[in-house]
Amino acid sequence: MIPQSEVDLHLHSSASDGMLAPAALVDHAANCGVRLMALTDHDTVAGLDEAVVAAHARGVVLVPGVELSVDWRGRTLHLLGLAVDPLAARLTRGLRRLQELRESRAARVASALSSSGAPGCEALAAVRAAGRLPTRMHFARALVALGAAKDVASAFDRWLGRGRPGHVATAWPSLAEATVWVIGAGGVAVIAHPMRYSLSAGARRELCAEFAATGGRAIEVVTGGGGTRDRDQAASLAVRSGLDGSIGSDFHDPAIPWNPPGRLAKLPGSVRPVWSSPPFPAFETDVEPA
Ligand code: AMP
Ligand code: MN
Ligand code: MN
Ligand code: MN
Fold this sequence. Notes:
Bound molecules: adenosine monophosphate, manganese (II) ion
Helix content: 25-40%
Distance between the termini: 20 Å
Order of helices and strands: EHEHEEHHHHHEHEHE
Structural class: alpha/beta
Strand order of the largest sheet: 1-2-3-4-5-6-7
Shape: globular
Number of domains: 2
Number of helices: 9
């Protein structure tokens, strides 16, 4: 049996905007007591090969995953693909499209920053030199290193968050389309951190109903940094939409002590754990009394 306290299905490595290389991430998660983990980098599966080898060495079950940037009604949402075949043809084509969008967006972020008085070109040079698939997080860290913000949070507040110059519109693929890629890759589609989007309660219910109707399997009911109120609301959303629940820290950085891998609340007993049925390997998990 794998208890819920040893499960974490949302973690980032340096293949996207995590601070740890995939093998170091697996080691860190294992040291934190995680035994079932998903690597879910933004729009790339490049970290998976290294993570699989490290997981084997540490006796950790590694679920191949990805966190896709998608559009729903003009908003950017994040869709987790869990237990995907990272070589599946349609997913691979989708990832290539997302990667091109990220590369061209990075250039637009840089010029928007420059027009607003931030060192956009220098930031872009640093982001490109890192050789990772660029995210706004990379820009935030570059702006901090260049002295344009005191820390990552203020870089988002001033330059990169919603309504700020470096937050540029991007034509991400639709949620429905990306859900098809995940399912076609043999995986399960899970809406990441559903309470983090600024949606009305009604819109969130419509999102989940639509997602369930188009093959979505679960929503992330427990997420790093989310409180019990978010968890309870997400749990009732899952139950009323007929969706399973997932749990994940959205870990990026060991220097952030309040969000380590695996330190997550359990799913309420009313919610079915997404990892308790195929394509996840067969094992039992514990459930909270309802
Ligand atoms: P992107 O997908 O390139 O737009 O970048 C999104 C990433 O930036 C998220 O996955 C987070 O890691 C990070 N991020 C977004 N907003 C914030 C924020 N307000 N503070 C800190 N990190 C953020
Ligand atoms: Mn991120
Ligand atoms: Mn996300
Ligand atoms: Mn994430």
